[in-house]
Amino acid sequence: MSVHMYGIPNCDTIKKARKWLAEHDVVYTFHDYKKEGVDAGCLQAWCKQVGWEVLLNKRGTTWRKLPDIDKNNVDEAKAQILLIEHASMIKRPVLVCGEHVEVGFSEASYEALFQ
C-alpha cells in the first residue's frame, strides 16, 4: 500500500505524525502543499471521501485573515477554490493510504490504519 502525506513541514501536527510514522517504520512520501500546491483532482477526491468541512481549517490565521466575503456562504465548490488558492487552510496532515484518506493526526487512528 502506498502512503502519501500532504502538509507543511514546519507544522507541529505534521511533525508528530511524521515521528509516529518513522517510529512504526511506515514508508511514505511527503508532499509540501505550501510549495507544491494541491492538485484539484486530489482535493475533489478528498472532499468526496471525508467532506470539505473536515478539510477546511477555520481555526488558522489564513482563514481569519480572509475577507468576510470569502468566508460567507461557503459551500463545497467555494471551499475547494479557497483551498487551492490557500493550501495552508487544509487541515493537516492529510494522509492517503491506498484509497483511504485520513485527515488530522491521532495515534489511535494511525494505529488502526497500520495494524
Structure description:
- The protein has one domain: Glutaredoxin.
- The chain has 8 helices and 4 strands; from the N terminus they run βαβααααααββα.
- It has helices at residues 12-23, 33-36, 40-50, 52-55, 61-65, 68-71, 76-85, 107-114, and strands at 3-7, 29-32, 94-97, 100-103.
- Strands 2-1-3-4 form a 4-stranded mixed β-sheet.
- It is globular and about 45 Å long.
- The mean pLDDT is 95.
Helix and strand topology:
Blueprint (H helix, E strand, L loop, with lengths): L2 E5 L4 H12 L5 E4 H4 L3 H11 L1 H4 L5 H5 L2 H4 L4 H10 L8 E4 L2 E4 L3 H8 L1
Parallel strand pairs: 1-2
Antiparallel strand pairs: 1-3, 3-4
Helix pairs in contact: 3-7
In short:
By secondary structure, the protein is α+β, with helices and mostly antiparallel strands. It is 50% helix and 15% strand.
What attributes does this structure have?
115 residues, alpha+beta, Glutaredoxin, four-stranded mixed beta sheet, 8 helices, 4 strands, 15% strand
